[in-house]
Amino acid sequence: MPVPVGSMPGGQHGPSTLDKLKMGGMMGGSVGLIIGFIFGFTNIIRYGPGPNGMLRTLGQYMLGSAATFGFFMAIGTTIRTESSLIATEAFAKAYRRPMILPRQYQYPRASREEKN
Amino acid sequence: MDHTRDPCPWVILNDFGGAFAMGAVGGAVWHGIKGFRNSPYGERRIGALTAIKARAPVLGGNFGVWGGLFNAYDCAVKGVRKKEDPWNAIIAGGFTGGSLAVRGGMRSMRNGAISCAVLLAVIEGVSIGFNRMMAGNTKLEAPPMPAQTSEPQVGGGLAIAA
Lengths: 116, 162
What we know:
The complex is a heterodimer. By secondary structure, chain A is mostly helical. Chain A has one domain. Chain A is 63% helix and 0% strand. Chain A is built from four helices and no strands. The longest helix of chain A is centred in the N-terminal third of the chain and has 31 residues, at 17-47. Chain B has helices spanning 8-38, 44-81, 86-100, 106-136, 156-161. Chain B folds into two domains: 1-82, no CATH class; 85-135, no CATH class. In chain B, α1 packs antiparallel against α2 (44-81), α2 (44-81) packs across α3 (86-100) and α3 (86-100) runs antiparallel to α4. The longest helix of chain B has 38 residues, at 44-81. At the A-B interface, α1, α2 and α3 of A face α1 and α4 of B.
C-alpha cells in the first residue's frame, strides 16, 4: 500500500509498492553481499575452504546471503505502510521535484491576475 | 531526525509486529517452495501447504523475537546515551545477539554478540551509503531559462477578457 497522499507535502506521492519492493531488494542484496563476504571469509579462515576452492566457496556464501537478505528485506519494506525511514527518504531524494521551476510550469498566482 | 515512527516504548510493539509479518510472509514463500520441492509427486500441493502451516509462523516468531528484542535494546541504549547515531543500533545489535545466545554459554554469547553487531553495522553503513547515492543524482541546479516570449500561458486569455 502506498503512503497516503495527504502525508506528503506538495502533492508528491510516496513510493509505490513496486518501488518499495525494488528498494528493499536492492538494499538487502547489498547488505547480504557484504555480510556474506565478512562471514564467508571468517568461516574460510576458521574451517578451511573445503573441496571447492576458496573463491568459489566465498562466492557461494556471498550470493546465498545476498539472495536471502534481499528476499526478506524486499518483503519487509513492502508490507509496511510506514516503511523504513531510510527507504522513504532515499526515494524522496531520488524523485524530488526540482526546487526551481521554469516559469511556464509555475502555478497561477492571484497577484499576476490582479496586476493586469 | 525521525518523526515518522512511534515514540520509544511503542515502537517496540510496532516493530515486533512488523518483523513477525515479514517473517511470516517470507516464510510462507520460502517454505512453500521448499515443501513443494521436497514432496513426492502427487502430494506436492498438500506438502507445500503443510510445510507452510507448520513452519511459516515459527519463522515469523523468530523474526519477531529478534525485532522486538532489538528495538527494546535500541530504546534502552537511546535512553542511556541520549544520542541518536548509528552506534545505537550497533550496540543494541550486540546486546540482542548476546541475549539470544544466552543458553549456549559465555563463548556463544560472545560470538553471537559480535556477529549481530557486525550485521547491524553493515546494515547501517549500507543505508547511509544508499542515502548518499540517492541524493547524489538530484543536484540542485536551475533549469535553463525559457526563451524570451510573451506572457506565460496561465492567465493570458483571462487578462484580455478582463
